[in-house]
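ok so I'm stuck.
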Amino acid sequence: MSNQTSRRLVAGLPAWDRCAVMGVVNVTPDSFSDGGRWFDTTAAVKRGLDLVTEGADLVDVGGESTRPGATRVDEAEELRRVIPVVRGLASEGVTVSVDTMRASVAEQALAAGAALVNDVSGGLADPAMIPVVADAGAPFVVMHWRGFLEGGNVKGVYADVVTEVVDELHARVEAVLEGGIAPDRIVVDPGLGFSKEAEHDLALLAHLDRLLGLGRPVLVAASRKRFLGRVLAGPEGAPPPARERDAATAAVSALAAHAGAWAVRVHEVRATADAVRVARAVEEARAAGNTPMGATRTAGTTPVAETAPAGSTPDADSPEGAR
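replied:
not stuck anymore, here's the structure
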């Protein structure tokens, strides 16, 4: 069975025929990635709509930075930032995810039109979160989390990061199920960059099959993260700024889509939207791989030659000799 046909769907959300693209709108003044560019409600709504135009399937709205050392905002401020943006995007028909660790914000965002709750703590930061999501019947993202990114929690210690993350996610999914969230509405996220070093993040990406073995849709959120900066810098160089890591992000998106991820979460959508579509096209080509080389197959009712006749003119859109 191919990764495309085995990719799990999430009840309560559209059924995309490939890895979905989740665009990010940070309604914060201190995001590590975009530093307050969308802090104004009008700008944030426009940004979300622009992401959809560029190919985002859903938009993740957050009002609290989760970067290492970030100070938590109070409940009233998070609500002020998030709810108008969720309402504005939902009213335009956008599938909206709310990125929050607070049950009150999740509850009001769902009432304002959000379709999904994305909690980086997996329900651990606020004991009321699971009951709220369960009562609403909403899909829920359970991320691997070892606490707020401050003090000793910034750098995680692992003997076997893949096994430990899989086991801890499994335990958290069981707790979420016991809390009443339906099995077909649970998504897991390995929590790249959260209490993890670059080698941990890379190991998790290299073993997404182990995460898929949990039997849940997998969300990969690698966009612009620190480990990509380390990879791009090499052993001696300085990591490029976050906004110069979008090509590397698109590469991860293609790899994650090929591995069978349900969705990828990114700040800049266009390159990733292209990447996941290419990954799907390659999967389709693999599925059709039984067609003999040089054979003629049909697209609809019109025969299509697999190879061009000798001496034919190259396609006008392709440079001669391109491959």
